Each structure stands twice: as structure tokens, then as C-alpha cells.
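Re-run requested by the PI after the first attempt was lost when the workstation crashed. Everything re-entered from the original request form. Ligand of interest: DOR.
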Amino acid sequence: MQTLTLRRPDDWHLHLRDGAMLAGVIGDSSRHFARAIIMPNLVPPVVTVANARAYRQRILDVLPAGDRFEPLMTLYLTEGSSPDDIEEGFRSGLVTAVKLYPAGATTNSHGGVRDFDKAMPALERMAKIGMPLCVHGEVTTPEVDIFDREAVFIETVLDPLRQRLPDLKVTMEHVTTSDGVDYIQTSAGNLAGTITTHHLVINRNAILVGGIRPHYYCLPVAKRESHRLALRKAATSGDPRFFLGTDSAPHVDPLKECGCGCAGIYTSINTMSCLAHVFEQEGALDRLEAFASLNGPAWYGLAPNEETITMVRRDRPVAFPEKIETGAGPVTVFDPMFPLHWEVA
Ligand code: DOR
Ligand code: ZN
């Protein structure tokens, strides 16, 4: 029997939601992951340090007994974000990063940034104090094709912003294109990228071929195969600038399976199995630990977890539920469309 032992992984991009949904999904993360960067796109969003403190407590309140899991909080950047509040949150250790959603880019992003000049005081302060900015890297301009939104964002928003604030530490989240990979690989510093589980597994055919499949729809939307291959190469390369951010984003089935379905794929429960499969296919199982457990903490200036997990390769496929039941309703689990043989022991 093949086994693989690695430092306990962390998830550097996670949506936990709130209320009954939070209670229904938290265990799927805390079972395998020690820490996660928690996305702030609630309704209303987590804008202030007081909001983040209260949300963190709501997460800890529903953590399954015995699980050790540290929510690393983020603040939702608005045009009115207070530099002093942000700095206080960072210095107190409560807030790890600030999240930039271009207004209208995705779920609950309407309160995000339209005019970057208005967010400059906050961004300048972050650059000064070394606080990371997590970026949803897509333009929302209606003229730009949805498959080009990331590449256009890099050219027209991200690169100018980084030139204006070279000291700003930027995590380019859920990179989905070879353009994103190239941009990170050729940057001089202060830039890293997270890659999701699902973008390593699916390309856009999964959403559209043979019928429209809402459970493969997320943002940034999956791109063509050449981009998926570039992401796999980057993730399995060992390059410390790439690490895991699942972007696991639960929505109840009725909100996915309808005339205008929400973006988001739920992967917390089977991410480690999917990743082991991908890394095995790429002949890089020895680099899974760097991607899932080492590169992220190094980027955020944290120590890797002391604990380890052991993964086991079963001869027979490992069964995951098709859906999980939450108090908010059923949530469909990501189906990688191949049998999974690895599981966390
Ligand atoms: O697919 C996504 N779902 N992408 C995002 O950027 C947001 C997320 C969500 O909150 O549902
Ligand atoms: Zn996200």
C-alpha cells in the first residue's frame, strides 16, 4: 500500500459563508486543513476589524469539537476602507490580508472597488506596513470577453497598480490562465498566486459539452485546456510562488441549478484526494507538500504546521458523497470525473 505523509495543509482561499451554511461546511475544512484564509464576501461583507472579529468568533463557535483550525481573517476592500482600521487589524494579528474584489466581478462583489484612486489610501498603507492584498483578478468591463478577463486585468489593472506601489505584496488568487502563470513567474517579487483544486482538473468543456453543467461553473471561469496544463505545471513545479487556495465556494443546489446559477464549486471535502491524484499523474507526489503545506505559510510569513497528515492510496476508489446536507440545503460536491484512490487516513 502506498502512503504519503506531509505537513498538515492549509487553504489559502476559502469561502465558509455564515449561519447554517457555515455550520454545515466548516467540518470539511477543519478535518484536513489547519488554517485557512477566510473570504469576506458575506452579505453584508466583512469590511471592518469589528466585523472580522465577530465573524471569526462565529466560525470558532461552530467548529467541530476537537478540531484545531485557525481562521485567518480578511477584510473586504471598499472605496471607503479606513487605512487606520486596516492597520490596526493587521498589527493585532486578527486580520491577515485585505481582499480586493473589482465591483461586479463575482458573488457579493457589488460593494467592491470601481475607482482605484479611492482605494489608494488603504493600499498605500498596506504597502507601507507589509500587509498582503488578495486579488480577484478579473476586469468587469462588459466589452471584455469573460474568458479574457484575467489577462486583461493583469495588463490594465494589476501591473499598473504594482508599478504604482512596488512594495505592495499581492496574492493573485485563483490563477486560471497561462498569462497569470507567466506574469507571476516573470515578476521581480512581491507577487504570488493561489491555484484552486478544480482549475487543475477541469477545463471549460466540463461546463459546456453535452449539456450545461452548473456545478462546474465558477469565477474566474475555467479556461481552455492549454491553460489548465500551464496551471498543472506551475502547481507541481515546486516554485514557492504557487500554492493551494481551494476557493471552495458552497451554494445550495437550487441557486446553482436555475436560470441564472451562482458561481462556485465545493471542493473542501475531496481537495486533498483530487490533488494527490493530479500530482501523481504529473509524477510530482513529492512536491504536493510544497504546494499544499509549505509555500503558502512561507509567503504569509508563518511557520508550516508542525502536525502531519498521511494519505493512503487505496486499490478501490474512495467514495465521497455526491452532495452534503447543510442546514441551508444540499450542496453538490465537486466531481472530478475520474475515480479517486487517495484519501487522508
Ligand atoms: O466561483 C466563485 N465563487 N468565485 C468567486 O470569486 C466567489 C465565489 C463565491 O463566493 O461564491
Ligand atoms: Zn473565492
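Saved to the shared folder this time. The first strand starts at residue 2 and ends at 7.
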